[in-house]
Amino acid sequence: MAYELYYWAGIQGRGEFVRLALEAAGAEYVDVARQSGGEQAMMRLLTSEGGERVPFAPPFLKLADLLIGQTANILLYLGARHALAPADEAGRLWAHQLQLTIADFVDEIHDTHHPIAGSLYYEDQREEAKARAADFVKSRAPKYLGYFERVVERNNAAKGHLVGAELTYPDLSLFQIVAGLRYAFPRMMERLEASHPRIVDVHDRVAAHPRIAAYLASDRRIAFNRYGVFRHYPELDEAKRRRTIKQ
Question: Which domains does the chain have, with CATH numbers?
Answer without folding.
Answer: 3-81 (3.40.30.10), 89-246 (1.20.1050.10)
